[in-house]
## 1
Amino acid sequence: MVVNCHCGSRASFLGEVPFCPAHFQLWLKETVETELGKFIGKKETLAIAVSGGKDSTALLDIVNDWVKNKDLKIFAICIDEGIKNYRDESLKFLRRFCSKKNIELKVVSFEKEIGSTLDKILESRTDLGVETKACTICGTFRRYLINAKVRELDATKVLFAHNRDDELQTLFMNLFTGNVSQISTKGEIGGITDHSAFVVRFKPLIDVPEKALATYALMKYPNLPDSECPYLEESARVGVRHFLNRLESDKPNSKKKIMKTYREKLLPPLKESAHLLNRTLNECEICKEPSSRLVCKVCELKKDLKLI
Ligand code: SF4
Ligand SMILES: [Zn+2]
Ligand SMILES: [Zn+2]
């Protein structure tokens, strides 16, 4: 059966609403711009966390167009974890993309800031008796580096390209491990929002399906490298992703409905109760960054991995 876009042309994107290529691109841009308009104020400096992948390239491109003629500054920030044959490729693409679009790009490397590449850290993990998963190590250092760097560069918000599928996977992973306090730090505005040491984290793609971003990237960025991180298969995320995709194919629109319940009914009371707990943060006794513990997670991990 031929499905048409509302303009009468043949639809090539058969998502929640069928669109022709031109209206599909317009719809995605407008969806993201609506989120941006809700949370970005005047005279802000926005850092866009990018990886050279489809989602963050689309976000960077859309934000870059949106800030034109507005009193806003942007720059892109990419963490080079040191993953051979993967990050090298995406960084090459990113450097070309940013230079073409005239966007300032900051690259922060694990090797320089943490003292080793992720590849080397993971190689030495077994000898050191560390069982922490690759993505936990990577994510802990990456979050820390992004926050420290964008704070140093006076960004008022850091934008992440987490899409609907990413956010739901994180939600389910936290549900499976009972990590409710982590859930309260998620949502479109996340992280610790009431402490000056933490730059507010904003996810404008939170309700955009991964499939839509993949289609958008295919249409707009044909040279995008499509390699996958070699450590991804270690992550519990892969299983949760399959589970949610199966659920969606059995019961179409499940992801959309879960996201609606999550944003409207689950997150607000969780955020409110986390706020009432009035959590106190001390200084980590090693790095002096704020932490709820004597030694922060980053320093603890560095100690375990003999990086300090
Ligand atoms: S898949 Fe895991 S190890 Fe690879 S870049 Fe992502 S968080 Fe890091
Ligand atoms: Zn159309
Ligand atoms: Zn520390």
## 2
Amino acid sequence: MDFRLTEEQEKFRKEARDFLEGEKKQKLWEPSIDSWIMAYDPEFTKRVAAKGWIGLTWPKEYGGQGRCAFDRLILTEEILRYGAPAACHWFADRQIGGSILKYGTEQQKRELLPKIMKGEMYVGLGMSEPEAGCDLASLKTQATKKNDHYVINGQKTWTSGGKYMNYLYLLARTDPTVAKHQGLSEFIIPKDLAGITTSPIIDITGNEAWNEVFFENVHVPKECLIGKESNGWRQVMEQLAYERSGMERIMANYPVFEGIIQFVKETKRDGKPLCQDSVIRNKLAQLKIEFEVGRLFMYRVALVMDEGRAPEWEAAMSKAYATAFEQRLANTALEILGPYGQLAPHSKWTKLNGMAYHAYLSSKGYSLQAGTTEVLKNILALRKLGLPTG
Ligand SMILES: Cc1cc2nc3c(=O)[nH]c(=O)nc-3n(C[C@H](O)[C@H](O)[C@H](O)COP(=O)(O)OP(=O)(O)OC[C@H]3O[C@@H](n4cnc5c(N)ncnc54)[C@H](O)[C@@H]3O)c2cc1C
């Protein structure tokens, strides 16, 4: 595989960097870690949309740019490097748009894709339930067909999108009489339908990026079904491959990485520059090696996508590797910062604006969200190594 960028791609990276540098200089937002999943800023999303950078890979006939997955990877790499607030559009751009393109009706493509590309449609991901996480197929939320609509009853948890989501992706049971993997269907529904209530989940960092979502006799028009009824399991497995494999899995904490290198260059401890401490140099060099390996894993996933294949085991392998790296990075940052590292953002004495503290706490969830590391290793054992199911 040749990972060299073309001249156009190098130009595109520079264009993305110039745009983000300009935004940063104008202080339109504050760089943050987890910016793709926790930093919701509809105005930023609209400015990205105005550049034509949402739906970059989608076909031109639907208003997309028809570019390759590798170009999108370049853009996301830069957004994460700057810690720009991209959460409003991330999920729809990464996986929901692709699902609509593959399984949606012509009407869904014409109606929903432009809304996503204009930066107006923010989709929360409603898969998990209180008793259906790793064993997602055991979910209980029911979608019962009645004439021209479905009636939804049940509960989702850890639904992304914060208070900004205005649409919901929903995986629900349409046929309770068949085996659990067979009776599931996918929907994309407006969040303001009667009978939907949400309650924020305040996570370990104090952020409210996720929700519990309750459905009580919610009437959903049958046009909201995506793909074939009861084909949801197959469809969602493809979607998860896209969810697991982007640069956000290795760069969620990137501003901490750059920040800690800067800190080490500028700081003395007991009169001696930290950058001359051989243990610290060794730890940072080790992290750099691990980061570059993870980055290549992600590049490979983008190339697999450009070959038109869902990167199932590649995505599982990349995410398992990358989230472990992110956790080591956060631990190392805390070790180097010493007591400063434990101070929250905006505290008087904090360093790196409290990003190391946030990264340390937040990274605990990285190996759970979008598939736990144990489950990803199971996928790898089964799909790549060909080991029998345990
Ligand atoms: C920060 C965060 C964000 C999230 N965002 C979303 C979201 O946007 N949308 C959404 O739908 N969900 C989301 N989730 C939910 C996430 O997908 C689930 O937490 C995850 O699938 C694990 O499910 P569980 O928490 O119920 O754990 P369980 O399924 O109860 O698992 C508990 C433990 O058992 C292990 N385990 C379970 N089964 C196996 C097995 N077969 N082999 C080996 N080990 C196993 C697991 O690895 C885990 O360590 C999010 C979760 C977190 C923490």
